[in-house]
Amino acid sequence: MGWSPSSAIRTYFAKHDLSGKNVALFFTLGNNPRGAVDKTKKLIPNSIVVGELVLVKPSSNKDETKKKIYEWCATLKS
Ligand SMILES: Cc1cc2nc3c(=O)[nH]c(=O)nc-3n(C[C@H](O)[C@H](O)[C@H](O)COP(=O)(O)O)c2cc1C
């Protein structure tokens, strides 16, 4: 189903207890994320979401995408 976490992500969350863990969410999409972020967060209600990055059409501007990822990673380290 569109704009929903993939079965691989659902399986990962089902097999790994991420309760109380810091989780950084990273999305790539071809369009507006709609409810994708919230749907994903609902699967890990007991996790601490320390960051989220949504990249729409990341390949359309690779330099900009790289910059966003570097900057996001830096925020996660601090
Ligand atoms: C099987 C599959 C399902 C996808 N489903 C969605 C979707 O529901 N919503 C969306 O915005 N993009 C969807 N995409 C697009 C990809 O997530 C991809 O991140 C997007 O095309 C941007 O990457 P690009 O810039 O490299 O093309 C899907 C891609 C694949 C291969």
3D structure, described in words:
It contains three helices and two strands, in the order αβαβα. The chain has 78 residues and is an alpha+beta fold. The chain has one domain. Strands 1-2 form a two-stranded parallel sheet. The mean pLDDT is 95. Flavin mononucleotide binds next to strand 1.
Q: How is the topology of this model organized?
A:
Blueprint: H1 7-15, E1 22-29, H2 36-43, E2 48-56, H3 62-77
Parallel strand pairs: 1-2
The structure holds flavin mononucleotide (FMN).
What labels would you give this structure?
3 helices; two-stranded parallel ribbon; binds flavin mononucleotide; 78 residues; 2 strands
Low-confidence stretches: none
Over all CA atoms, what is the radius of gyration?
13 Å
Number of domains: 1
- N-to-C SSE series? HEHEH
List of distinct ligands in this structure: flavin mononucleotide
- SSE class: alpha+beta
Spatial sequence of strands, sheet with the most strands: 1-2
How far from one another are the termini? 35 Å
Sketch the major β-sheet.
Answer: 2 strands, parallel
Query: Beta fraction of the residues?
Result: 15-25%
Helix content: 40-55%
Shape call? globular
Query: Using DSSP, what is the number of strands?
Result: 2
Number of helices: 3
Mean pLDDT: 95
